[in-house]
Amino acid sequence: MNFSDLLNSVPTGLWLDGRSTPSESGRTFDVLNPATGEALAAVANATPADARAALDRATAVADEWAATPPRRRADVLRAAFDAVTARADDFALLMTLEMGKVLPESRGEVSYGAEFLRWFSEEAVRIGGRTATAPAGTGEIAVVKEPVGPCLAITPWNFPLAMGTRKIGPALAAGCTVIAKPAEDTPLTMLLLAQVFAEVGLPPGVLSVLPTLDAPAVVKELMDDDRLRKVSFTGSTGVGRILLAQAANNVLRTSMELGGSAPFLVFDDADLDKAVDGAMLAKMRNGGEACTAANRILVQNGIREAFTARLTERVAAMTAGPGWEESSAIGPIINAKQRGSIAALVDEAVAAGATVRTGGKQVDGAGFFYAPTVLDGIPDGARIRRDEIFGPVAAIVGFDTEEEGVAMANDTEYGLAAYFFTENVGRAQRVARRLQAGMVGVNRGVISDPAAPFGGIKQSGLGSEGGSEGIEEYLNTKYIALPAI
Ligand code: ADP
Q: Which parts of the sequence belong to the Aldehyde dehydrogenase domain (predicted)?
């Protein structure tokens, strides 16, 4: 399929009541191709009134969806998995066009993202409770699980499909209705997903999609309405704090997948080949635009130059170009603002004394490209050692002892992912336990798996997505006190 056939097949209205609908305001906004800076499509721009209409529907069908037999909910999710998989090429190209990642990575995201639908189709029929006899024998304790009710899912632009399915999958499996608010840079993938859900029989109103340029007003409208019962957010810690404060008003259930500053530790006893391969994945996959991306590459000084030289060689060989071209190893940055903030972090570090081993600059011409970069010798106070880079910049810092490496790794308000490389089993067990992170990769550069709980500690978030834990986020626990038998 060529670009325009695909774009013509994607709904561009709000997804309300099982179909594509204009905003009540009649307004639209352009979605840009970050590889060219040109508009791909004009998408309906939801208003607070549109948000109320979506919540009206999500509330009206909530009881019916909650009462739909789990096997039927599972069948819809499984059919959606099959349909997304059958249209993998369309979803992949669409993500490459609106988000920029290279096509092989988009295909990887389709498999990963679709898998949440299959995984949670399997979990839908395994929602259990428990019973027990009260210790004093005075009664029976029955514990049952019930869907929390209408949910709001707010997603970022870096994984346009997977961040949607990771929330929508468990919510639908649990019996909740969902209003999805995709990132303004990448709403098309979520709209196509909603259309696919409708095609496989998801009843109208159970899933709505509200693209908007005015996320704060649309989201506030929903969160101030006590019919909404849950918000699940993936995005920056700053916005997460705002949402947590707003959620307090109606005491909403919340799941927060926020920022990260993942340490990537390479010990002297690491296998250098594995460590360099792992760093390429943990740093450069998705153009470095991932909250799990290696943000601080901490290398024990005995191996530092060897590691840095090898990594530099690999990074320097990467060609930045449009994601749909086979020669491109890395796509553009999502937008001009984001590229500007990456450039500022690098420029400041270099001004303070860091060494550019490769890259270190924007790529001139159309689109928002930034050269894949390796920086070494980052001085202590540099902002790049604290802030989330969210771009293809490997920032290397040396350390001497295990103690010092772990202390540096934990010296952050974030606690999402951490990675380390060692061939020493004792060290592996010790360091895995001592790292303050919700997810730790041992000799691995990629850790996400739909069957595992994804989530952070400290200021990286609350709750888990995926795994058997993921569905709990969408279930309330009810205790029923029964008389003694
Ligand atoms: P990023 O910096 O990666 O774009 P953000 O946290 O700004 O991450 O955005 C993640 C999601 O949160 C997007 O869907 C965005 O539209 C939404 N968002 C941003 N600001 C707000 C806000 N004040 N209230 C609600 N949603 C918001």
A: 23-480
**Mutational pocket test of ligand 1: of 45, 154, 291, 341, the residue with most ligand atoms within 8 Å of the beta carbon:** 154
Q: Are residues 219 and 363 in the same domain?
A: no
- pLDDT tens digits, one per residue of 343-352: 999 999 999 9
Is 185:335 a contact under the CB 8 Å cutoff? yes
Looking at 291, 388, 472, 473, which residue is catalytic?
291
Q: Do residues 294 and 385 both lie within one domain? A: yes
Residues 425 and 325 both lie in one domain: yes
450 domain-assigned: no
**CA dihedral of residues 300, 305, 311, 314 (deg, nearest 10):** -160
Task: Kindly tell me the sign of the dihedral angle through the C-alpha atoms of 400, 403, 406, 408.
Answer: negative
Is the predicted pLDDT of residue 1 greater than 70, yes or no? no
Please tell me if the CB atom of residue 184 comes closer than 6 angstroms to any atom of ligand 1.
yes
Q: Is residue 335 part of a domain?
A: yes
* 291 tagged catalytic: yes
Instruction: Indicate if 251 and 282 belong to the same structural domain.
Output: no
Residue-by-residue DSSP string for 270-285: S-HHHHHHHHIIIIIG
154: Cβ–Cβ under 8 A, 6 or more apart, which residues? 181, 215, 219, 231, 232, 233, 234, 235, 243
Question: What's the structural domain count of the chain?
Answer: 2
Please report, for the domain that includes residue 151, its CATH number. 3.40.605.10
Contact yes or no for 260/282 (Cβ under 8 A): no
> Looking up tokens 């309330």, which residue turns up?
476
The ipTM estimated for the assembled molecules is 0.97
Shortest-distance Cα residue to atom 25 of ligand 1: 216
**What does the pLDDT average to over 33-51?**
98
Residues spanned by the domain of 377? 263-442
Q: What's the pLDDT at 430?
A: 98
pTM higher than 0.95, yes or no? Answer: yes
155 neighbors 182 (Cβ within 8 angstroms):
yes
